[in-house]
Design a protein that fits this description.
This protein has helices at 16-27, 42-47, 50-54, 66-75, 89-94, 96-115, 156-175, 199-209, 226-237, 256-266, 303-319, and strands at 7-11, 31-36, 56-60, 80-83, 124-127, 144-145, 179-183, 186-188, 213-215, 221-225, 244-248, 252-254, 274-276, 286-287. It is an alpha/beta fold. The strands form 4 sheets. It has a 7-stranded parallel beta sheet, sandwiched between helices. Strands 8-10-12 form a 3-stranded mixed beta sheet. The protein is globular, with a radius of gyration of 19 Å.
C-alpha cells in the first residue's frame, strides 16, 4: 500500500496512547480519523497545536455497534486501523458486563469490520496488555517473563485482553486476517491520568506543580514512554508481516527510587516530595520482548529522557496557564493565604 493512500482510523483516540498515536500520524503527514465514544479532546490539546488538531477528522461512535464501525470505515475510506478503545482495570472491575462488551465484543467488531474489507486493509493493530500475566507467570529461576509464557490474568481486564489475543489468532486461522497486538506495561507521559499504573505520570505532574504525591506502588516495573508506544503502533500498522502476532513492548525496568531520581534530575528539589506505597504491582517487571524488532527496531527512550521530555511539555503548559491539575488526575493546588 502506498503511503499516500493510507487513511488511518484510531479508536480510543481521546485516551493517552490514542492522543500520542494521533499526534504521531499527523506529524507524519497521514490522514487520520479519530473515533471515540467521548468528545473531550483535552489530552490531544495538551500535546498538539490547533493546526494539527484541525487536520484530524473526529467521529463520535461506539465500537460495540458493528454497523457504526463499518460505516466509519466506508465513509472515510479507511485503510489502516489502530484499535485502542477499551475500558481500563478499575472500570472493568466496577462493571464486568460493560467491560466485556467494550473490550471483547468491541474488539471483535473491529476485526469483523476489517475482515469484510480485508483486500483494501492493512493488518489490524491493537493493544493487549501485560495484565494478561501475573508475577507468577515469570520464569521461576530467572524471574523474567518469556514471550511464550502461559498467561494467568489476575483480573477481568486481563481476561478480556487475553480473549482478544485468542480471537485475533482465530481470525488469522479461519480467514487469513493478519494482526499485530502489543502488550504495554507502565505507560507514562503527558495525558496518562487514568488506570492503575498512572501514578508515576501523576508524580511527574505534581513535581512540576510543586506539590507532593504518593504513588500506589514502589517496586520495579517496566516503564514505557507514551510516544514510543505510539511509534510502535504506527510501525506495526505499516508492517507487511502476516499472521496473528503479539509482542511485549520494550522499556526500562525501574523502581520507585529510580523514578524519583529521574524526576529529581528534571525538577531539582522535587524528589523529597514524592512518596510510594510499599509493595509491587501484580505483574512481571523483567519482560522478554524478543521479536518486536521486526516491526519497530528503534530503541526505547530511557526513563531519564522520557521524564525530562514530559517535564518540558508540562512546563510549557504551565507557562501558557494551561497546566490544570484536575486534567492530570490531581487535586488542584491550594491558593496561598
Amino acid at each position: 500500500m502506498k503511503a499516500g493512500a493510507e487513511r488511518f482510523l484510531v479508536t480510543g483516540a481521546l485516551g493517552c496512547i490514542g492522543a500520542w498515536t494521533v499526534r504521531g500520524l499527523v506529524r507524519d503527514g497521514a490522514q487520520v480519523v479519530a473515533l471515540d465514544v467521548g468528545s473531550d479532546t483535552r489530552r490531544l490539546r495538551l500535546i498538539m497545536t490547533p493546526d494539527e488538531l484541525a487536520a484530524v477528522t473526529f467521529v463520535t461512535g461506539d465500537i460495540t455497534d458493528l454497523a457504526a464501525v463499518e460505516a466509519v470505515l466506508d465513509s472515510n475510506g479507511i485503510t489502516n486501523v489502530i484499535h485502542l478503545a477499551a475500558l481500563q482495570v478499575p472500570f472493568c472491575r466496577a462493571d464486568p458486563p460493560r467491560g466485556a462488551l467494550v473490550n471483547v465484543v468491541g474488539t471483535v467488531n473491529i476485526f469483523e469490520a476489517v475482515r469484510r474489507r480485508a483486500e483494501a486493509m492493512a493488518p489490524v493493530v491493537y493493544t493487549s496488555s501485560m495484565a494478561v500475566y501475573t508475577a507468577d507467570d515469570a520464569d521461576p529461576v530467572t524471574g523474567r517473563l518469556m514471550v511464550d509464557a502461559v498467561p494467568h490474568p489476575p483480573n477481568h481486564y486481563g481476561v478480556y485482553k487475553q480473549a482478544n489475543e485468542g480471537n485475533a489468532r482465530i481470525y488469522w486461522l479461519d480467514t487469513g486476517l493478519s494482526s499485530v497486538g502489543v502488550r504495554p506495561m507502565t505507560v507514562y507521559g503527558v495525558g496518562r491520568d487514568q488506570g492503575m499504573t498512572s501514578g508515576p505520570t501523576k508524580a511527574i505532574v505534581a513535581a512540576v506543580l510543586g506539590q507532593p504525591y504518593r504513588v500506589s506502588f514502589s517496586g520495579p516495573t517496566m516503564y514505557q514512554y507514551a510516544p514510543d508506544v505510539a511509534r510502535t503502533l504506527i510501525a506495526a500498522s505499516r508492517t507487511t508481516v502476516e499472521g496473528a502476532h503479539v509482542f511485549n513492548l520494550p522499556g526500562e525496568v525501574a523502581d520507585g527510587r529510580a523514578l524519583t531520581a529521574a524526576i529529581e534530575a528534571a525538577v531539582p528539589g522535587a524528589g523529597g516530595h514524592i512518596e510510594f506505597e510499599p509493595g509491587d504491582l501484580p505483574f512481571p517487571s523483567e519482560i522478554d520482548h524478543d521479536g518486536i524488532e521486526i516491526i519497530d527496531p528503534d530503541p526505547a527512550t530511557s526513563l531519564t529522557v522520557g521524564v525530562a521530555e514530559t517535564v518540558e511539555v508540562l512546563r510549557a503548559l504551565a507557562e501558557e496557564g494551561r497546566l490544570d491539575p484536575a486534567e492530570h488526575g490531581l487535586e488542584p493546588v491550594a491558593s496561598p493565604n
